[in-house]
Design a protein that fits this description.
alpha/beta, 31% strand
Length: 224
């Protein structure tokens, strides 16, 4: 009797393995955070795997999801009957870059991680008047975002190998395109805390001098 059960067990296992190797993906369902539907562009890519053998689809879907910068994490489940279920967590964009010569925006997280490209954006935006080095992009993205959280920023541009920040009171701040972000933010807060004590003015020879520009590209901020 045991041999009979063993025989059918082995036969059933072989059948399942065979189905796994030869059955194809019939349907693909994709769900993002908070039960929202996946972005249409991503869903279109996933649907291209319909008709692919289950054994191949599992690897191909994971490889595709891994290459999508917009996705922070994902899970893939495929039933033996060919129904694929994909769940993703999307990265949240916090800052945008826009080259002066195009209408395309590149979206980054507050940590400087690439999210996606878009044709429009309501996020704080850094206008690129000059091309910046790839290695500087995460630094500029993170610094720009952090500055918008502590200062009344009106406009941000990259020009002359510097990040130029225009405040709502028309004061201009200049920052390098690399360095220690914590040091720069700390220097910014200290400088403005001192200026706030004198209503934004610098006392030189007992006379109040209005500050129009602060340059943080040096070890010690230069006030002009």
């Amino acid at each position: 009797m045991r041999r009979v059960f063993l025989f059918f067990g082995v036969l059933f296992t072989i059948l399942l393995v065979s189905l796994f190797f030869f059955l194809k993906i019939k349907t693909i369902n994709c769900q993002a955070d908070h039960s929202l539907p996946c972005p249409s562009s991503l869903l279109e890519k996933l649907q291209s795997f319909q008709g692919t053998r289950i054994f191949q689809a599992q690897k191909k879907i994971r490889a595709m999801l891994m290459m999508e910068p917009e996705i922070a994490s994902y899970s893939v489940r495929i039933s033996p009957l060919g129904a694929a279920s994909v769940e993703i967590t999307l990265r949240e964009g916090s800052i945008a870059f826009k080259p002066e010569t195009t209408n395309a925006y590149t979206i980054y997280t507050k940590d400087g991680i690439l999210v996606k490209e878009a044709q429009e954006s309501s996020l704080p935006t850094v206008l690129l008047k000059e091309q910046i080095d790839t290695a500087s992009v995460p630094f500029v993205a993170t610094l720009s975002y952090e500055l918008t959280t502590i200062l009344p920023v009106s406009q941000m541009t990259v020009e002359g190998e510097s990040l130029k920040v225009l405040l709502r009171d028309n004061r201009v701040l200049l920052y390098p395109l690399s360095g220690d972000i914590d040091v720069l933010l700390g220097s910014t807060l200290i400088t403005f805390s001192q200026l706030n004590l004198t209503e934004g003015k610098l006392i030189i020879d007992r006379q109040a001098v209005v500050i129009h520009e602060i340059d943080f590209r040096f070890k010690n901020p230069v006030l002009r």
